[in-house]
Amino acid sequence: MAWILRRIGVSLILAWLVASIVFMTLHLVPGDPAELLLSTGGIMPDPGAVAELRDRLGLNDPLLVQYGGFLRGLTRGDLGNSLIDDYPVLAEVALRLPRTLELIFAGAILAIVVALPAGTYAALHRGGAFDRVASGLAALLLAVPVFVVGTLLILMLAQWLRVMPAGGYVPFADNPGRHLALLALPALTIAKGLAAVLFRMTRASVLDALSRDHVRTARAKGLTPRGVLVRHVVRNALIPVLTVLGLHMGTLLGGTVLVEYVFNWPGLSTPLLRAVEARDYPMVVGIVLTISGLFLLINLIMDLLYAALDPRIRAA
Q1: Cβ of 304: how many Cβ atoms within 10 Å?
Q2: C or N: which end of the chain has fewer Cβ atoms within 10 Å?
């Protein structure tokens, strides 16, 4: 229990550090949000109107005063309102976050279902035809950016073969079949990099586990190959695989921006890009903190899974 509390404490400290760094960094970026909001067609706004808007938005307050108000709002779960349309940031995040998470977890499930069995099989048949082909394909997938893969999938499956929709979004409750069809290509695009990394890590971890003394001992005692694989190989090989999975799940949270843009998926990317362009501090901070918080939560869950797989970790 003490180990779990320490991990939670570390995660909370990291969350505060991330929030502080994001807040300070955005306020150091050149550009006046009030001036950008009032600018139309490249025409400079009236200085008096800019000053009035800055005062109304609290941008004239000292930076430490703004920071204190920001932290107080976080403790109450208040992320503030957008500078663009005065819409609550929390409401915007709550609306769009489930769509982004659906995309990420669909891609992660696809990657896990494909990569773990394939990596294990490649390790058990090291040097065979499957191992060589799968390893080459994994290297190729790692080298190709997600926006290139997404564009190629749209070109081949949506434009040429016309078997999949090119992009868009329909709520699951309105049309489940159409929703899943629209989800397929972006989820596959996200899955490609994670599947390649998990395949390589699974293959390497299983090969390492197969060479361990306790595995040879289990075989010498007459344990069946299936029993050796399940009880002694896969269990030990999963720990480094989980480490990579946790790190890349966090990467996927930030990497979905391009995928959502390519497939016109209405997740967090649209308000984030608009907010960055308009220096909408509350919206940018709210979305970045949401992504960072999820990253820390995923890593905390992975730490708990490590401890479940290897009790020695709890004593560290």
Answers
A1: 15
A2: N
DSSP secondary structure letters along the chain:
-HHHHHHHHHHHHHHHHHHHHHHHHHHHSSS-HHHHHH-BTTBPPPHHHHHHHHHHHTTTS-HHHHHHHHHHHHHTT---B-TTT--BHHHHHHHHHHHHHHHHHHHHHHHHHHHHHHHHHHHHTTTSHHHHHHHHHHHHHHHS-HHHHHHHHIIIIIIIS--S--S----TTT-HHHHHHHHHHHHHHHHHHHHHHHHHHHHHHHHHHHTSHHHHHHHHTT--HHHHIIIIIIHHHHHHHHHHHHHHHHHHHHHHHHHHHHHT--SSHHHHHHHHHTT-HHHHHHHHHHHHHHHHHHHHHHHHHHHHH-GGGGG-
CATH of domain 97-315: 1.10.3720.10
Summarised one tens digit per residue, pLDDT across range 76-86 is 888 888 877 88
Q: What confidence score (pLDDT) does residue 214 get?
A: 66
Residue-wise pLDDT tens digits, 138-161: 999 988 888 889 999 999 999 998
